[in-house]
From TrEMBL:
Localization (cell): Secreted
Pfam families with a match to the protein in the record: TSP_1
Native species: Mytilus edulis
Classification via SUPFAM superfamilies: TNF-like (SSF49842), TSP-1 type 1 repeat (SSF82895)
Spans through the membrane: 7-27
SMART domains per record: TSP1 (SM00209)
This protein's name: HMCN
Domain of life per record: Eukaryota
């Protein structure tokens, strides 16, 4: 392989492996993962697009956080190792530090008690050499000391252990965690750790536990159902002591209990008829007579101020004893004439009579004559009606052209130039007819109500005819007309008519 090619490939490989990341995004908000004492937040960065394909390192960082403002007292983390001696030779001082982060105080929690820095003497090799002056002072120093009981050390809490198991196998329970006063433990007259060694939190283990329902106490009886005499009073109870939960059984029994009650004196009772007795014998020995039956006001009988039974205690019905006696029929009186049978104009009204005074019985003769009589009548003004036609000859029309029908054979109010307008008092059901004869070309016409198509007439050859009649309800203000539709048409002679008459 060529030397320059090899160098270029190595350059690409190096570039690919050590590609740069872009800047980190801001940290996300702290997300709770354990009650409110501990959370996690994260931030991200992206490998910068370009020649490299892969960047070294991670593109996501996570860290624990506890800025959810739960109340947590601070506790010291472990001491760091001592740093270097402060001198290069002879006796010096070395230092160590610790952080208040196990845990750090959160919310109104107390800060760590004590100092974050500790010092100790140190000797770095032999005594320093040089022309230094001899030591000033004595080479011996004495100090008081107590070699007896241990020095006092205040106790400090160690970290919380993990939460224990939920106290229940279903529903809501409690989980508990503990900590030891051992970081450090109190020594001598040192104060014990401040606070408790146990912390509890609620927990939910699966679905709610099954709880069987149990009845609560009965409430007080309600009011008597009547204002006088004997009635019923009712009391209720709820299945809430406890209420059933999950697969728990409902309460056993009823939620309502009733008992009889008496409210004051006996109530007034209205009388009510008992059942009818059997009919007695027929009043005649032949033909149609009368038979009678009776009943008693005893179901119940009236009490106190109660009303007596309403009606009669005797009922009669016709009866036939053997064969009917021969009775010739005779007409009853004529009824009044009925209404005029047309909504307007001239019509007929009828009256009737019945052969029942008496009706013919057995071999008796029927009534002689007719049971219906009629007479002429006039119901208000003449019914609205018109008939109009075209004059003789051929009449060409363009698409959409209104057909005026100028020759009026029968005129009425509201008709003008081919349009019928329903005026006040003219509303009703109309019978409307349209007849069309085509001229030298085919014809297409439509009957329209307020613009909407009701009827479409079509002829497909010269002198072809088409017609249609419809009944339609019209109200005041409706407008009816005929117009050419779809294409230019030719209509021929007086055979093209437009008519309407109110029929009811």
């Amino acid at each position: 392989m060529h030397k320059h090619t090899l160098i270029y490939l190595m350059f690409l490989i190096v570039q690919t492996v050590i590609g740069p990341f872009g800047p980190w995004t801001s940290w996300t908000a702290c997300q709770k993962i354990k009650n409110c004492e501990e959370g996690v937040r994260k931030r991200q960065r992206q490998c910068v697009w370009g020649l490299p394909i892969t960047c070294l390192g991670t593109d996501v960082q996570k860290e624990f956080c506890n800025d959810l403002l739960c109340r947590v007292n601070g506790n010291w983390g472990p001491w760091s190792p001592y740093g270097p001696c402060s001198v290069t030779c002879g006796i010096g001082v070395k230092t160590r530090t610790r952080l208040c982060n196990d845990p750090a105080p959160v919310g109104d929690g107390a800060p760590c008690d004590g100092v974050d820095t500790s010092y100790a003497n140190c000797i770095n090799g032999e005594a320093c050499a040089g022309d230094g002056a001899p030591c000033d002072g004595v080479d011996t120093s004495s100090a008081s000391c107590i070699n007896g009981e241990a020095c006092a050390v205040n106790g400090n809490w160690g970290p919380w252990n993990l939460n224990g198991h939920c106290s229940v196998t279903c529903g809501e329970g409690v989980e508990t965690r503990t900590r030891l006063c051992n970081d450090p433990a109190p020594v001598g007259d040192g104060a014990p750790c401040d606070g408790v060694d146990t912390s509890s939190a609620s927990c939910i283990n699966g679905e709610a536990c099954a709880v069987n329902g149990n009845w609560g106490p009965w409430n007080l009886n309600g009011h008597c159902s009547v204002t006088c005499g004997e009635g019923v009073e009712t009391r209720t109870r709820l299945c809430n002591d406890p209420a059933p939960v999950g697969d728990g059984a409902p309460c056993d029994g009823v939620d309502t209990s009733s008992a009889s009650c008496i409210n004051g004196e006996a109530c007034a009772v209205n009388g009510n008829w008992g059942p009818w007795g059997l009919y007695g014998p027929c009043s005649v020995t032949c033909g149609e007579g009368v038979e009678t039956r009776t009943r008693l006001c005893n179901d119940p009988a009236p009490v106190g101020d109660g009303a007596p039974c309403d009606g009669v205690d005797t009922s009669s019905a016709s009866c036939i004893n053997g064969e009917a006696c021969a009775v010739n029929g005779n007409w009853g009186p004529w009824s009044l004439y009925g209404p005029c049978l047309v909504p307007c104009g001239k019509g007929v009204q009828e009256r009737t009579r019945i052969c029942n005074d008496p009706a013919p019985v057995g071999d008796g003769e029927p009534c002689d004559g007719v049971d219906t009589s009629s007479q002429n009548c006039i119901n208000g003004e003449a019914c609205p009606a018109f008939t109009a036609t075209l004059p003789g000859g051929a009449h060409p029309y363009q698409n959409g052209g209104l057909i005026g029908y100028p020759i009026k054979l029968l005129d009425t109010r509201g008709y003008s130039n081919g349009i019928l307008t329903v005026l006040p008092g003219m509303g009703g059901v109309y019978s409307i007819s349209v007849t069309m004869m085509s001229g030298y070309v085919t014809g297409h016409t439509t009957l329209r109500k307020n613009g909407a198509i009701l009827v479409w007439l079509f002829t497909n050859k010269e002198y072809d005819m088409a017609s249609q009649t419809i009944n339609i309800q019209l109200v005041e203000g409706d407008r009816i007309w005929v117009q050419v539709n779809n294409q230019a048409s030719s209509l021929f002679d007086v055979y093209n008519t437009f008519s309407a008459v109110r029929i009811r």
